[in-house]
Amino acid sequence: MTTSWSRSYCQEITASPEKVWAVLADVSTWKEWNAGVEAIEIEGAFASGVWFSMVLPDNEVFRSQLIDVSVPLHFVDATWIGETVVRVTHSIEPLPMDRCRVTFTANAEGPEAQDIGDGASADFPEVLVSLAMYVEKR
């Protein structure tokens, strides 16, 4: 039986959308602001269709694909975990006074959607705070 699950988290950042995008699109910085990333390797430019592999602190490796990249508004990646797919939309909404709102929305579909979705997004609030601090210091 396939089930669906979804959850969103957002964070306002005092920076332009372009500045936030520059950090998000540079995967080499992810381990600097995301404690859940030990290492990451992308197989090309940050563009739709490109695959990347992410190593977690426990050495578990996830292979994901960028399925929709729209500079500097959003990108969506998809990761298959068994028969369940998790798609994460990372969106940037411009706000007045050189600010923006960054939202991470995780959607999971499959037999273990809720458990896998909960696990995949559990650190999103902390990751967004760290992203804000990282971008605002640059």
Automatic annotation (TrEMBL):
Name this protein carries in UniProt: Polyketide cyclase/dehydrase
UniProt cross-references to InterPro entries, sorted A to Z: Polyketide_cyclase/dehydratase, START-like_dom_sf
Pfam families associated with the record: Polyketide_cyc2
SUPFAM superfamilies: Bet v1-like
Gene3D superfamilies found in the cross-reference section: 3.30.530.20
